[in-house]
Structure formats: C-alpha cells, structure tokens
Amino acid sequence: MEKPFLRKEWVLTSESFGKLLARLDKDVDVAGEKYEALRRMLVKFFEWRGAPFPDEHADETLNRVTRKLEEGLDVRDISAYCYGVARLLYLETSKSPDSRRSSISELDAAVAPEPDSPSDEHRLRCFEQCLGSLPTDGRRLITEYYEHDRREKIDARRGLAERLGIPLNALRSRATRIRDKLETCVNECMERG
Predict the structure, then answer these.
(1) Is the pTM of this model over 0.70?
(2) Given CB 3.0 to 4.6 Å as the disulfide criterion, which of 126, 131, 151, 155 pairs with 189?
C-alpha cells in the first residue's frame, strides 16, 4: 500500500542533496550540523502533532524543499520554508485515510503481541512468516533499523547507514520499502486466514 504523501516522480540525488547543504552553509561540516538540527526540528514538529511516521514526514519535507531548490526556487530562509512545507504536509497527510497507519515499531506491538486469542496467535505467525520470507539482508536491515528507541535509534541508524555505505535518506527509503512489503504480507496472510 503506497503512502499518499510520497511523490514518486522525483528522487533525491547526491547532487540535489549537496545543493541543499550548500544553501545551509558554505562549510560542509557546519552544513551537515545545520541539516541534522533542521531534521530534528521537523521530526519534533510531526511528533508534537501526533503524526504517524514523524521521521518519514521530516524526510519528505526535506525532499520537497530540496526539489524546489533544484527547480530554481530562491529561498531566503530555509528553516522557515521547511516549517511551511511541513505544515502543509501535515495538513495533507492528516486528511488522508492512510494517516492512521502504524509504523513497524507499532506494528510489532500490535501485530506480534503476546497471544491472548487465536487471532493474535495467527497474526504473530503471519508476522514471523513474513519476516522470515524477507531476504537475509532485508530482514537484518529492518530489524536493526527499528531495534532502538529515542537517541539510541538515531545513533544506530547512522551507524547502519555508514556500515552499508549509503546516505541516511537512502537507508530510510530502503527501510520504508521493506516495512511496506512486510505490512502488506501480514495483511494478506491475515485475510487468507
């Protein structure tokens, strides 16, 4: 099931990401720090509003801003512009019927609870079967990606991205695709009975 707030026609490239960083600061290290601070602010923005997938919403906001910069839009205050885009994205997604979908961490708690009923046991078997059907790399990535909470999660995801030799946004995209496949698999398994 596709998330309505993700735009498939444009993909973040290292060149476009470099343009965003260059707009944040001329010094690459300072730009990186400003980017992380901006992203944290966006994640908090979505968390405070109770939006599902605050990390993914923050990334989508930054992707949309980066796309506009690449298209030539002259933005004087990147932070203020990001905040405006985040507000619009929140309004857009809060109206969608998919906005109540759970993240995999919530899915794990909801799909794989301690079995109290036959349907819970079936859901747990579906979850384990679907997780087991993932390729080894995908299974490892998704379990490591959602393994920790709060600050540990951020550090662990950075470490995972570094180990894989990919940018953090690419890691998030991979994890989102795997999570969506996993959710679809569990739902189909549950429907089959």
Answers:
(1) no
(2) 126
